[in-house]
Amino acid sequence: MIEIRPERSDDADAIRAVTRAAFAGAAHSSGTEAAIVDALRAAGALTVSLVALQNGAIVGHVAFSPVTIDGQAGAWFGLGPVSVQPDRQRAGIGQALIRQGLDRLKHLNAEGCVVLGDPTYYGRFGFTSDPALRYADVPPEYFQRLAFAGAMSAGAMSAGAMSASATPRGEVAYHPGFAAT
């Protein structure tokens, strides 16, 4: 049985250990994922930070933090890193963390979420590629977005970051914590 709950102040060491283990040796890993989570936490930029527990031990973690679109802050967030203890991967823990995190973002009146990752995996949550939304030199199929239906603020419209259809357009930037090394 898996329990998912918000991160607590005494979870940082366990989250760091799970994140390091989850990304150790991964071809797509920069090796900085644990430092990114620590930097986001230190900056107060972990909008949603959830842990998965099994038998009282943290076996997974997911982070959501604010992003900007064409330099404009709004109600869009980035998903990641998402980490699951290697011996617990492929058991649905990551999916459960992501689904609960997306639900929490919706309850915070977020307009949407972006993710950099495998289109097949993230497509199951409704993420799709949109060439009008870009991230650095990443191939567009690996940078995806999920717009939350009905979530569009007048502030985002006046800032020009969103079109009339609530579809984001422009260059996405993650929080500076993603530059952690």
Features of this protein?
alpha+beta; single chain; nine-stranded mixed sheet; 31% strand; 9 strands; 181 residues
Write a brief caption for the model.
With 181 residues, the protein is α+β, with helices and mostly antiparallel strands.
Describe the model.
This protein is an alpha+beta fold. Helices cover 27% and strands 31% of the residues. It is built from five helices and nine strands. Strand 4 (72-84), helix 3 and strand 5 (112-116) form a beta-alpha-beta unit. Helix 1 (12-23) packs antiparallel against helix 2.
What structural category do the secondary elements indicate? Answer: alpha+beta
Indicate the mean pLDDT: 89
Q: Distance between the terminal alpha carbons, to the nearest Å?
A: 35 Å
Largest sheet: 9 strands, mixed
The number of distinct β-strands equals 9
Strand-residue proportion: 25-35%
N-to-C SSE series? EHHEEEHEHEEEHE
Global shape: globular
Q: Helical segment tally?
A: 5
Low-confidence stretches: 152-165
The helix content is 25-40%
Rounded to the nearest angstrom, the radius of gyration is 16 Å
List the helices and strands and how they pair.
Layout: E1 2-6, H1 12-23, H2 33-42, E2 48-54, E3 57-69, E4 72-84, H3 93-107, E5 112-116, H4 119-123, E6 128-129, E7 133-134, E8 143-147, H5 154-159, E9 170-174
Parallel strand pairs: 4-5, 7-9
Antiparallel strand pairs: 1-2, 2-3, 3-4, 3-9, 5-8, 6-8
Helix pairs in contact: 1-2
